[in-house]
């Protein structure tokens, strides 16, 4: 459909969810013994109200019928915490990779303190959100920066449509992934950089903790219109690839600048960041991951360690952590894992909880959920 159609999504949820639950129970090998289920976790918000309602009602019914605890999960917290399931601690696990040679995910063992340890930075980049957060603990987050207009995922998607880039097939496809693939074929990636701005990079705005992609998206539209006018309504494929590469460069540079600023701000505030977690659908982008590795490789976080009454300066690297690509987009694993983390903290909800279509992550832990 070229995007989400709320009414169709609502009906698809109602049509498919019962079979999905049945299949999950079968594949888990529970048979008829559902007493083995410990807790029911469900997305409570934010998101589309009607779709959230279908899921929440199903979870309430299942939890009540089985007399099991119910946990309503914040969608954004789930993205932030997924890395604590999929990442091994280098110090304890000899740098064990979290994706094996066969492509299987090596999940970190469930313990009292999964890795990465708190506090850490989370860059949440998706079709609906662009957020830079400090994760202080389960149920406690501080937003450092959010978008003032479009999300980065929306900018990727709409720029891909402007360029008439065909979607890649499958669940991992879509316009954003297609643009990334097109950009890899560019032979002249700097061709359009003089026409494309790096958002919030002027001296007066560079230190502002804000994301903005509307201007960059509009610049892509103008460049496409200019090329089509010169080419009698047609844009050369090589130029499409070059413009895709230019857009991607500017968008990712913008993210890198704000992450750098966020690291500096945390250090000034005495927040000892252990790592940078990149999550959300755009977190699948290989170029984004590579550039963030470069940012953190060039950044040393100053720490102090007391030794026999004296203070000795130490430095440590901020590690970049990305869940496996298949767990970057919205998925049930991240909700289940967050449900487990909250359950272990005793954060259990009543059966009468309601959906929260708009729910700032900063409000989590305050006891207040917007209606």
TrEMBL record:
A GO BP entry: mitochondrial tRNA threonylcarbamoyladenosine modification
Main location: mitochondrion
Signal sequence annotation: none
CDD domains: ASKHA_NBD_OSGEPL1_QRI7_euk (cd24134)
Catalytic EC class: transferase
Cross-referenced HAMAP family: TsaD
Protein name per UniProt: N(6)-L-threonylcarbamoyladenine synthase
Naturally occurring in which organism (per UniProt): Podila minutissima
């Amino acid at each position: 459909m070229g995007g989400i159609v709320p009414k169709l999504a609502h009906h698809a949820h109602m049509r498919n969810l019962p079979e999905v639950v049945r299949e999950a129970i079968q594949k888990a090998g529970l048979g008829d013994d559902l007493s083995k289920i410990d807790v029911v976790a469900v997305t409570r918000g934010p998101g589309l109200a009607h779709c959230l309602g279908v899921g929440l009602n199903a979870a309430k019914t299942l939890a009540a019928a089985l007399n099991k605890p119910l946990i309503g999960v914040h969608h954004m917290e789930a993205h932030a915490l997924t890395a604590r399931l999929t990442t091994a601690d280098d110090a304890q696990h000899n740098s064990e990779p979290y994706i094996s040679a066969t492509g299987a995910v090596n999940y970190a063992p469930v313990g009292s303190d999964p890795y990465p340890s708190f506090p850490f930075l989370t860059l949440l980049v998706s079709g609906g959100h662009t957020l830079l957060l400090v994760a202080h603990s389960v149920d406690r987050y501080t937003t450092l920066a959010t978008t003032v207009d479009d999300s980065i995922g929306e900018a990727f998607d709409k720029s891909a449509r402007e360029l008439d880039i065909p979607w890649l097939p499958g669940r991992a496809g879509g316009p954003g992934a297609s643009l990334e693939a097109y950009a890899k074929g560019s032979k002249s990636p700097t061709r359009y950089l003089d026409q494309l701005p790096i958002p919030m990079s002027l001296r007066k705005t560079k230190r502002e903790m804000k994301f903005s992609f509307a201007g960059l998206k509009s610049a892509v539209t103008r460049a496409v219109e200019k090329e089509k006018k010169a080419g009698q309504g047609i844009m050369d494929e090589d130029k499409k690839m070059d413009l895709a590469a230019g857009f991607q460069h500017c968008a990712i540079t913008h993210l890198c600048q704000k992450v750098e600023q966020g690291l500096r701000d945390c250090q000034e505030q005495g927040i000892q960041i252990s790592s940078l977690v990149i999550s959300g659908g755009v977190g699948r982008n290989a170029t984004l991951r590579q550039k963030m590795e470069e940012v953190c490789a060039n950044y040393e976080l100053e720490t102090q360690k007391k030794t026999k009454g004296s203070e000795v300066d130490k430095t440590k690297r901020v590690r970049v952590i990305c869940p496996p690509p298949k767990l970057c987009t919205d998925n049930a694993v991240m909700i289940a894992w967050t449900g487990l983390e909250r359950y272990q903290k005793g954060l259990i909800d009543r059966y009468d909880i309601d959906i929260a279509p708009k729910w700032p992550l900063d409000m989590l832990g305050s006891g207040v959920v917007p209606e």
